[in-house]
Design brief:
membrane, transmembrane helix, mainly alpha, transmembrane, single chain, transmembrane transporter activity
Length: 116
């Protein structure tokens, strides 16, 4: 599997997991899950574990400093997904933050001798 595909899968799983955790935070705990967490929270945790597995595969092919820089794209993706799917606002200052994160990822990527 290509490194780029692994990164996309990892980031995608992280985004979905965050959305499920947010939705599950307002749900009552499920009797099926011993009354501890809601089913959405449980699904979010399972998807986070899947994202961690993809990240482990990414670490097999990329140096940690580069893998972590690319993984930072999840912060931008979660903010955008929350805006699109949950109606959370993206203020001007958040756009500034998104720009800084994106710029940082590009700087690290351009300075790397390792390609995706």
């Amino acid at each position: 599997m290509s490194t780029l595909l692994l990164l996309v899968l990892m980031i995608g799983c992280t985004v979905i997991a965050n959305l499920m955790m947010k939705l599950g935070a307002g749900d009552p705990a499920s009797a099926v899950l011993l009354g501890l967490i809601s089913w959405r929270t449980f699904i979010g945790l399972v998807i986070f574990a899947t994202a961690a597995a993809f990240y482990a595969f990414v670490l097999k092919v990329l140096p940690l400093n580069l893998a972590q820089a690319y993984a930072a794209a999840q912060f931008v993706a979660v903010i955008c997904a929350a805006a699109l799917l949950l109606g959370e606002p993206i203020t001007f200052m958040r756009w500034v933050g998104i720009s800084l994160i994106s710029g940082g990822i590009m700087i690290v990527a351009l300075s790397s001798e390792t390609s995706l």
